[in-house]
Amino acid sequence: MNARLHLSGAHDAQEPDDGTRLAVAVEVLGLLADRTRLALLQRLGEGEADVTTLTQACGAARPAVSQHLSRLRLAGLVTTRKEGRRVIYALRHGHLRRLVEEALSVADHQLGQLPPHD
From CA 14, how far away is CA 22, in angstroms rounded? Predict the structure, then answer.
């Protein structure tokens, strides 16, 4: 992500200003504004998965899935670990899972599948 937070010391983290927070939020939402990446994050919200599983889950070509995962990893939204020769992907935190769930709930409301509520 371009708008990284800078730490001034081990214990003195600088609080981001609203402009920085908004810039990071826009970048995160921009990454979610792609059908393949949203499908990948939705699947990862269910638990860890390798590229083969993620490719099947989102229905995109494997090279495209790998490129999208690379973008998500570089942005700090997903983590990786090795399991033998396989790379296993996971969401970095639950906030992202909940954000994806909320975006999909908004879509359900827009499509009329859920009644309005607060």
Answer: 16
Q: What are phi and psi of 88, to 5 degrees?
A: -105, 130
pLDDT in tens, 29-64: 999 999 999 999 999 999 999 999 999 999 999 999
AA letter at 51: V
The reply to whether the predicted model has a pTM over 0.85 is no
Q: Which run of H or of E encompasses 86?
A: strand 86-91
Cα angle: 61, vertex 72, 100; to 5 degrees: 90
Distance from C-alpha of 117 to C-alpha of 25, rounded to nearest angstrom: 25
E strand or H helix that includes residue 40 = helix 35-44
